[in-house]
Design a protein that fits this description.
about 300 residues, alpha/beta, Spore Coat Polysaccharide Biosynthesis Protein SpsA, Chain A, about 40% helix
């Protein structure tokens, strides 16, 4: 789910384009083109992103991962989710952003993400306010709708991002919610910044999606619900991810958007291949699962 425990606290706002970023050529004309393209997209989608640091990111995955491995996985997730946003932008008018934490970590995102991904500093003491601030900032940048997206689902089908943007492009006031298997949500999109959607929510619990839908009913806001997807925030999610990246891939030429077809996370798959060759991950995760069963 989009999780308060994985985001940091402090206010601010920025939209600087990377000087040195993955796939960035340093061309100021290219930077201007990226900003212009973002402004013309009707839907802005912002990843709730935390800069990678051992001991501070993806710590719920330690063990079976080490702190260094968890931080590396966080970086790979951010790259894959950014690439997924850019791919979705081929099928719908979507602009990609990273609403980042902690404050002052811009350089990490400049180095790590594609230059087409804009930055938003949305850190506030309350996580609901972070989400609301991000939505307000996306709408202020000229988009007709704004979506907040988690940073824990690198295999989220591209078709679900497109479906969210298409639903929000329809006439009339509405929201879009993508529920997670753990009771939270991986995505929430709106056309107006409704503060009530982020009030009285038990963040980081299995009640988040249910309570958000209750708030929507209170303000008589119609909600388009997407299919359930999973977060990678525990051993079971990590095992599912590991299995998915091992699957044979359809060729890009024959690939069609399908809400059931996981996105292939290239950076994550490459990292997994380097870290856990020869069945190492399977052995580690099985040991953790057995230990959990014995302690239950």
């Amino acid at each position: 789910m989009i999780d308060a425990n994985r985001f940091d606290d402090r206010p601010g706002s920025t939209d600087r384009t990377p000087v040195c970023a993955r796939n960035h050529d340093g061309n100021t004309a290219t930077n201007a083109d990226n900003k212009a393209a973002r402004r013309t997209a009707s839907c802005g989608i912002a990843i709730m992103a935390k800069a990678s640091a051992p001991g501070r990111t993806k710590t719920r995955l330690v063990p079976p991962l080490s702190f260094d491995e968890a931080a590396a996985l966080n970086t790979a997730f951010l790259q894959d989710i950014s690439d997924n946003l850019l791919l979705a932008g081929r099928y719908a008018a979507i602009a990609g952003y990273a609403a980042y934490a902690p404050p002052g970590s811009e350089d990490f995102f400049y180095r790590t993400l594609p230059s087409a991904i804009g930055l938003i500093d949305a850190c506030l003491p309350n996580f609901g306010d972070c989400l609301l601030r991000t939505i307000e900032e996306v709408l202020a940048r000229g988009h007709g709708s704004a979506v907040v997206l988690n940073s824990d689902s690198p295999t989220l089908p591209t078709a679900l991002l497109v479906e969210a943007a298409d639903a929000l492009a329809q006439p009339g006031e509405r929201a879009v919610l993508g529920p997670s298997t753990d009771g939270g949500y991986y995505l929430l999109g709106v056309k107006t910044a409704h503060r009530r959607l982020f009030e009285d929510i038990a963040w980081s619990t299995e009640h988040v999606a249910k309570q958000t839908l209750e708030r929507a009913r209170e303000i008589k806001l119609n909600v388009h619900t997407l299919p359930v997807w999973y977060d990678v925030d525990d051993v079971e999610g990590l095992r599912r991810l590991y299995g998915e990246v091992q699957r044979p891939r359809a060729s890009e030429r024959s690939r069609q958007l399908d809400t059931r077809e996981p996105n292939h996370p290239a950076a994550t798959a490459a990292l997994i291949g380097r870290l856990w060759a020869n069945g190492e991950f399977t052995r580690r995760s099985e040991n953790i699962m057995q230990a959990a069963a014995q302690s239950a």
